[in-house]
Amino acid sequence: MFKSASNGNHRRIPFSKLWLGTFAGFLLAFSAWAMNALASAQAPKKDAIPELASSRFAWLAAGADWLDPPAGLRGPIKNDSDHPFHGNLDGPGQVTLRIGNYKDPVLKPWAAAQMRVSNEEVLSGKRGLPFSAQSRCYPGGVPGQLLFPAEPFYFIQTPKQVWMIWQRDHMVRRVYLTNKHSDKVTPSWFGESIGHYENGDTLVIDTIGLSTKNSYIDNYRTPHTEKLHVVERLKLSADGKMLEAMVTVDDPDTFNEPLHMVQRWRKADNPLLETVCAEDNFDYFHQNLFPLPEAKKPDF
Hints:
The chain is of the alpha+beta class and 300 residues long. The chain has helices spanning 15-42, 109-123; strands at 5-6, 12-13, 58-61, 153-157, 161-166, 172-176, 192-198, 202-208, 229-236, 242-250, 259-268. The radius of gyration is 27 Å and the shape is globular. The relative contact order is 0.17.
């Protein structure tokens, strides 16, 4: 038979109660250890790689306009308040065209003037629709390509590169997993993008060398110069069902301060299909649309 124990005041405590108390404490300690171990196991490793690429799913944009950043940061260019925008997804009402706010004080005078001319082309009836890169079979540039809606895009992840492939015309943007830009970068549609992973859930992309012809940072036709520097932080949600990009645009010759913008995509079960933009893409209603890009000479 086991003897009972006593405390400092010599009050005798039954051994069964002492054993139960000790066992309960052990359980609490073990539970705390298990929870910490589980949390550590589930927490993304700093050098882990988020699963962005798959043959089973794609990413579909939540909308065609930049969302506002966290409070305190300068956000994107909006529509002109004199011409409110009403899109296809905004409920009942007449759909209107995107007329950018050229009066935004963040714009340098030349950029404001260019946006005003673009607006007047549409408001005067000179053009039935404003320029939209993907609808006229042009690449959307960086970061404008992130706003393309309706059709999904896909990732291919390799040890040295990440490819972003849009179903529309199979536009391909390459991100090189290195920490240094080339000494000399020739401007191009998607520029030179370098990147790295962070915290197991984020792809950080740094882009320079962006050409300016028919290249805008949004669907309000906000222009930029070749000094444009774009940093994108593409973060996967905890459940893996959403992807969010926090984008910073810096161009001292166009903006008086950097702009911060957000875009989101949802994961969608969608096999990669073939969409050829230029096929049957004519100006049927005589709206004086921007012409489709054409090669100066045939490939063969």
